[in-house]
Design a protein that fits this description.
Layout: E1 2-4, H1 13-28, E2 33-39, E3 49-51, E4 53-56, E5 60-62, E6 67-72, H2 76-80, E7 84-87, E8 107-111, H3 112-119, E9 128-131, E10 141-147, E11 164-168, E12 177-183, H4 191-201, E13 207-208, H5 213-220, H6 222-255, H7 258-266, H8 271-307, H9 316-343, H10 346-351
Parallel strand pairs: 6-11, 8-10
Antiparallel strand pairs: 1-12, 1-13, 2-12, 3-6, 4-5, 4-9, 7-10, 8-11, 9-10
């Protein structure tokens, strides 16, 4: 992906549009390029345009919330790897007549989430919509396709719930846009070839933010990675303090029963039964601790889920592993002093304070 802005380089609107056309054609025919497209925005940068939509179906419907828009050229979905699930892509039929005074778009492609919310199991193809929520909104724009949703603003976007819509890029004058280029092999190796192609069109045209999609994803996840690193560090410290504290408390409680163990052994109890006495109480405390902790884990995990990308609120293996480890530490810290107490003679145990 990279941005190009002929308007900022002194081109008038008509000249900027011609240059964008020429540059796109050059990129599509460049060696190693599979496909190329232009859109009005860079994805995963937080920016988006949105508007309410009026749908003319069996009845007139106004969208419950704003729909996120993107202006694209034909081939955009194939370039970024998003599947068109119904209908068709844009082509020359969808462009407005440049001499027409009509300002509305002719065609629109909507996301699966949009189709599912407002059309249910019916096909949205052929239905008409209008931009805005006024009673007199004209519904003249035809839905020609349905596409899989994808994360546009950030990696946190829920592609199954955010409604998206796409309109023809060339229907509006634009001083620039973002080019998306799909290449064969490693994307980094194509940077020089792409810059050379741009230089053939206009050597003075500035190219901004040339980056691979993987690098853009990494950049978009910078905050999440920082939070994940901090969370891991604090979690490791908390875990170590918990283990040390748990061992110390349980060992102290078990050692306090040395005299009781000596009395029981003096009365005929076996070493195994004396150790089991302490272990049984430790197991009860461990079980009670887990029962109390699990609801707290669920509540705190919901908070963590909202802060980090693709972290589930309930991670069974992690919770089970931590519970087992804490249980073993608690049981071991109880068993060792209990075994030592059961190993001394009853006379020594009775003298223990």
């Amino acid at each position: 992906m990279f941005r190009a802005s002929p308007a900022s380089n002194g081109y008038p609107e008509a000249g900027a549009k011609r240059l964008m056309h020429e540059l796109l054609e050059k990129l599509e025919s460049a060696p190693g390029v599979e496909s190329a497209a232009v859109a009005n925005t860079h994805i995963l940068t937080g920016g988006t345009s949105s508007s309410s939509i009026t749908i003319q179906s069996d009845q007139r419907i106004v969208t419950e919330r704003a729909v996120h828009f993107m202006r694209i050229t034909p081939g955009f979905f194939a370039t970024i790897g998003t599947r068109l699930v119904a209908g068709r892509d844009f082509d020359e039929r969808d462009l407005r007549d440049p001499d027409s005074r009509e300002s509305a778009y002719r065609s629109i492609i909507v996301s699966e989430s949009f189709a599912r919310r407002y059309f249910g199991s019916r096909s949205p193809l052929g239905h008409r919509i209008g931009f805005g929520n006024r009673p007199d909104t004209r519904t003249t724009v035809e839905i020609i396709g349905v596409v899989q949703g994808f994360s546009r603003r950030s990696m946190r976007d829920d592609r199954d719930s955010i409604e998206q819509a796409f309109v023809p890029y060339w229907d509006r004058q634009s001083g620039g846009g973002t080019f998306y280029v799909k290449v064969r092999g490693k994307p980094e190796a194509a940077f020089a070839s792409i810059r050379a192609t741009i230089g053939q069109v206009d050597p003075a045209l500035p190219v901004v933010d040339m980056i691979t999609l993987d690098d853009q994803i990494e950049r978009a996840l910078t905050t999440e990675r920082m939070l994940a690193t901090l969370s891991s560090g604090f979690g490791a410290i908390a875990f170590l303090l918990s283990v040390v504290g748990l061992y110390g408390v349980i060992s102290f409680v078990a050692a306090q029963r040395t005299q009781e163990i000596g009395i029981r052994m003096a009365l005929g109890a076996t070493r195994r039964s004396a150790v089991w006495l302490v272990a049984r109480d430790a197991l009860v405390m461990i079980g009670a601790g887990i029962v109390v902790a699990l609801p707290c884990v669920w509540v705190l995990s919901r908070f963590i889920e909202s802060q980090l990308y693709e972290v589930r609120a309930v991670d069974g293996p992690t919770i089970a592993g931590a519970s087992v480890l804490f249980g073993l530490v608690a049981l071991g810290s109880a068993m060792m002093p209990a075994w030592r107490a059961a190993s001394v003679s009853p006379t020594q145990a009775l003298r223990y304070e």
